Amino acid sequence: MNRDLNQKVFVAGHGGMVGSAIVRKLKAIGYSNIITASRAELNLLDQQAVQQFFTSQQIDQVYLAAAKVGGIHANNVYPAEFIYENLMIEANIIHASHQSDVQKLLFLGSSCIYPKHAEQPMREEALLTGVLEPTNEPYAIAKIAGIKMCESYNRQYDRDYRSVMPTNLYGPHDNYHPENSHVIPALLRRFHEAVQRGDEEVVIWGSGKPMREFLHVDDMASASVHVMELDEKAYRANTQPMLSHINVGTGTDCTIRELAETIASVSKFTGRLTFDVTKPDGTPRKLMEVSRLKALGWEASISLSEGLSDTYQWYENNVVGVRSK
């Protein structure tokens, strides 16, 4: 394991769900030189500003957790923003890292990089073997580009830029907009508000049949730091020159109906669940094959029921100030 607690570590996207969890994890380990920058302080879409920031900070490591994210609705309505902003953010940070001689970088992608009908569970080798899910294709293409950027800088300049592909994430500091967010925060808010109003029904998008895998963000932060700190020899022994990304997940999934029923129980909602089949389901199933990460010494430790309970409690305690746009 490669750990120097005095190194300057930049966490891009520290205000988001994943970035904030990585900061918490790094602080818990004992890193004392964690660098962050708010949107007001640094516009990651501005190439010159990003380059100047890297030049002035003399950064040693980068966790690239900054991204524009959202659920099916947001991806459908704002495809241009999703591809443009994500491409610009990753291109600016990866290139500035190289130009500033940052040797170690971890890029955080997404399970949506895999084809819509990829064999389940999805292996890293499935990348670029089929057609993507249309509802989030622009976002997926941007994330694939990020993987290939890391691979390209490694090949041409012998950098150590790594990529991890998380399954569906949830936890504190998520976006809880009822339409633009991912399924868990959207449902947590919907059920919470239904309980507050005394509603007898909660409507869920889709048929409830698609199967999804969910990973608590604290587990994702733990996996990210684990992969970043692996000795280069150990990391490369479990990857390939043209297959540098590693899946991060639990290796288990559930139906959206089962998820909704669990959230109903956690929120103490006693009414009926109605599934709106006029809304899109998205990919039929998304389950990550995570044997490569297990071989590198890491696996998830937070169960879905435990994670949902903790996340719902966080939401209740922070409902006034949560992100909802």
From TrEMBL:
<feature type="active site" description="Proton donor/acceptor">
    <location>
        <position position="139"/>
    </location>
</feature>
<comment type="function">
    <text>Catalyzes the two-step NADP-dependent conversion of GDP-4-dehydro-6-deoxy-D-mannose to GDP-fucose, involving an epimerase and a reductase reaction.</text>
</comment>
<dbReference type="Pfam" id="PF01370">
    <property type="entry name" value="Epimerase"/>
</dbReference>
<feature type="site" description="Important for catalytic activity">
    <location>
        <position position="110"/>
    </location>
</feature>
<feature type="binding site">
    <location>
        <position position="212"/>
    </location>
    <ligand>
        <name>substrate</name>
    </ligand>
</feature>
<feature type="binding site">
    <location>
        <position position="143"/>
    </location>
    <ligand>
        <name>NADP(+)</name>
    </ligand>
</feature>
<dbReference type="InterPro" id="IPR001509">
    <property type="entry name" value="Epimerase_deHydtase"/>
</dbReference>
<feature type="site" description="Important for catalytic activity">
    <location>
        <position position="112"/>
    </location>
</feature>
<feature type="binding site">
    <location>
        <begin position="166"/>
        <end position="169"/>
    </location>
    <ligand>
        <name>NADP(+)</name>
    </ligand>
</feature>
<feature type="binding site">
    <location>
        <begin position="13"/>
        <end position="19"/>
    </location>
    <ligand>
        <name>NADP(+)</name>
    </ligand>
</feature>
<keyword id="KW-0413">Isomerase</keyword>
<keyword id="KW-0521">NADP</keyword>
<feature type="binding site">
    <location>
        <position position="190"/>
    </location>
    <ligand>
        <name>substrate</name>
    </ligand>
</feature>
<keyword id="KW-0511">Multifunctional enzyme</keyword>
<keyword id="KW-0560">Oxidoreductase</keyword>
<comment type="similarity">
    <text>Belongs to the NAD(P)-dependent epimerase/dehydratase family. Fucose synthase subfamily.</text>
</comment>
<feature type="domain" description="NAD-dependent epimerase/dehydratase">
    <location>
        <begin position="9"/>
        <end position="232"/>
    </location>
</feature>
<feature type="binding site">
    <location>
        <position position="205"/>
    </location>
    <ligand>
        <name>substrate</name>
    </ligand>
</feature>
<feature type="binding site">
    <location>
        <position position="182"/>
    </location>
    <ligand>
        <name>NADP(+)</name>
    </ligand>
</feature>
<comment type="pathway">
    <text>Nucleotide-sugar biosynthesis; GDP-L-fucose biosynthesis via de novo pathway; GDP-L-fucose from GDP-alpha-D-mannose: step 2/2.</text>
</comment>
<feature type="binding site">
    <location>
        <position position="281"/>
    </location>
    <ligand>
        <name>substrate</name>
    </ligand>
</feature>
<feature type="binding site">
    <location>
        <begin position="108"/>
        <end position="111"/>
    </location>
    <ligand>
        <name>NADP(+)</name>
    </ligand>
</feature>
<dbReference type="InterPro" id="IPR036291">
    <property type="entry name" value="NAD(P)-bd_dom_sf"/>
</dbReference>
<protein>
    <recommendedName>
        <fullName>GDP-L-fucose synthase</fullName>
        <ecNumber>1.1.1.271</ecNumber>
    </recommendedName>
</protein>
<dbReference type="InterPro" id="IPR028614">
    <property type="entry name" value="GDP_fucose/colitose_synth"/>
</dbReference>
